[in-house]
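Structure request: AAA ATPase central domain protein, Candidatus Wolfebacteria bacterium GW2011_GWA2_42_10.
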Amino acid sequence: MEPLASKIRPKTLKEFIGQEHLVGENKPLNIAVKNKHLFSFILWGPPGSGKTTLAKIYASALDAQIYELSAVSAGKEDIKRAIEENSWGKPKVLFLDEIHRFNKAQQDYLLPFAENGKITLIGATTENPSFEVISPLLSRCRVFILNSLSDEEMAKIIKRVGFKMDKETRDWLINMANGDARQAITILENTNSLYGKITVDNLKNALQSKFLRYDKKGEEHYNTISAFIKSMRAGQSDAALYYLARMIDAGEDPKFIARRMVIFASEDVGLAQPAALMVANDVFRAVEIIGLPECGINLAHGVAYLCQCKKDRSAYEAYMEAMADVKKFGNLPIPLNLRNPETKLMKELGYGKEYEKYSKDSFLPEKLKDKK
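Returned structure:
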């Protein structure tokens, strides 16, 4: 039986809700659809933000033959079959969900077909493609970033489903789904099937019966990694190791976990123990070389170490503050004494004048010179 989320999937951009920066008037995907522009791209965004729907709308608008594969289960033979199948003169679009799950050899196999135009590739991923997609393939694709759906956008999607509910119930569902339209629709479908009425209590009961498992594309994925990081931050190694084991047992990509540990080493441990970054990087490298199941031991080693490290977020917080100033003030003029006098005219204008290597005077732009 076709899931409700699939049944009510928008067929055109006019029906699509959200991602206005991509599908709004004069935005890139809107222009591509209108002009029937055939090109490969990757959709990077959180679960339930519209990646599959946009791929289908694009292929339909171009009257293309679309072949849908999931990188979790597909291999070279599946790609080969899609490429060799007769598309009766139509453009051939290969939609590869979770493209970050393809290993290097599989991506290498895919590359020449994307290069020579035998297929137009649309990849979808919840992970930063620059981490997992090989450079030659990435360079041949535009990357479009999708955002989590806003509360207002979620309300519109829930209204489209057509189930009656009061405002309290709708607000609870929006908060629980956290921008994931697919999860919201699925829970509504399950609740209606089980209880015939949509209330907060019925939603909670349906959620417990249906989603008490680790879903790598759903809310539990983010809840677990959040608990894992917060446990390390608090130095609670017992809890951190438990959440690590829970993710590994559920089939989480160990490189995903190791990447978060590398980030954590700079964000949370920081200057308190700079060697933590080297340890975390070594753990990541070990995970790449060893693989599961043994690399779980390397991860546990790194987790126990990071938990025991003293914590200092000052470098991270200072960087965030500096970034806020950049966003607020734009490109403030660089002080003249810090500019290189590359030409005679620049020297005459005061470039590099009175520059001192170890000066205690602020090197910040004039507007920020007293900022700490």
